[in-house]
Design goal:
The protein is mostly helical. It has two domains: 83 residues, Winged helix-like DNA-binding domain superfamily/Winged helix DNA-binding domain (Arc Repressor Mutant, subunit A); 138 residues, Up-down Bundle (Four Helix Bundle (Hemerythrin (Met), subunit A)), CATH 1.20.120. Helix content is 67%, strand content 3%. The protein has twelve helices and two strands; from the N terminus they run ααααββαααααααα. A two-stranded antiparallel sheet has the order 1-2. β1 and β2 form a beta hairpin. α6 runs antiparallel to α12. The longest helix is centred in the middle third of the chain and has 25 residues.
């Protein structure tokens, strides 16, 4: 299982697999998302994959079962393991989203992320404005302070940015919005990826200002203002992410 924030922490470099099992999952999963193993194709047979990854049949079969559970492949008797169509992929799965970050999503995928966030996160902000607790308010201010302290450290800044959004989604009491956290994290990773990897010097104060406005609106209990402020932060993330989309 991938912990919240793991995708953002990996921006400075690809995280090495912890064991042979996770290595096989990562290599085949990333291969499916990138198109190395195209939709409709049959994966190499067990013997070939065992040789490629230097693993036992047991490790390979367990890895393929994990990928099947994520909706990427399916085993077919007398045929082999087939890559299934994208509509069956578990696109809210954090690991699948991590492979999209590695492969570089296309414009259609970016539009999908943007539309999902525009639809649900402003609703979450409005809901939290109605019923937030003192503890939730303190957590929002904590991550806002972390953003302020990291204005010259984009990697730490983007982690704090995501955590603020995660706290709001958790506080919304809506299980469908809570399930959106992987999508929100991927969106932040796409927005900050080039800044972090290239160690660019950028002015992050406007991003902080928008988030300060968001937290203030939530604390005041102004539902419409909170929703509007959340939408502004989303549009800012999207504008940054579009710059890293493949042409």
């Amino acid at each position: 299982m991938i912990e919240p924030g793991s995708l953002l922490r990996s921006l400075s470099g690809r995280v090495a697999a912890r064991n042979f099992h996770s290595h096989v999952i990562n290599e085949i999963g990333a291969g499916v998302i990138s198109g190395r193993f195209p939709v409709g194709s049959i994966l190499p047979n067990d013997a070939a994959l065992m040789e490629e990854f230097s693993v036992s049949r047991t490790v390979l079969r367990e890895a393929l079962k994990t990928l099947e559970a994520k909706g990427l492949v399916e085993a077919r008797p007398k045929v082999g393991t087939k890559v299934v169509k994208q509509s069956r992929w578990s696109l809210y799965d954090a690991q699948v989203l991590a492979w999209y970050l590695e492969a570089g999503p296309d414009e259609e995928f970016l539009r999908g992320i943007a539309n999902v966030r525009r639809s649900l996160e402003p609703q979450a902000a409005g809901d939290v404005a109605r019923h937030h607790t003192g503890d939730q308010s303190r957590l929002m201010h904590y991550w806002l302070r972390q953003m302020e302290m990291a204005l010259d450290e984009p990697h730490s800044f983007c982690l704090a940015d995501f955590e603020l959004h995660r706290i709001i989604s958790e506080a919304s009491r809506n299980p469908f919005i809570r399930a959106l956290q992987g999508v929100i994290e991927l969106s932040h990773a796409l927005a900050y990826r080039d800044i972090v990897r290239d160690q660019r010097v950028v002015d992050l104060l406007p991003v902080l200002t928008l988030h300060d406005r968001l937290v203030s609106a939530i604390e005041r209990g102004t539902v419409e203002a909170a929703s509007a402020a959340m939408l502004e932060t989303i549009e800012q993330d999207i504008s940054m992410a579009v710059m890293v989309a493949p042409v």
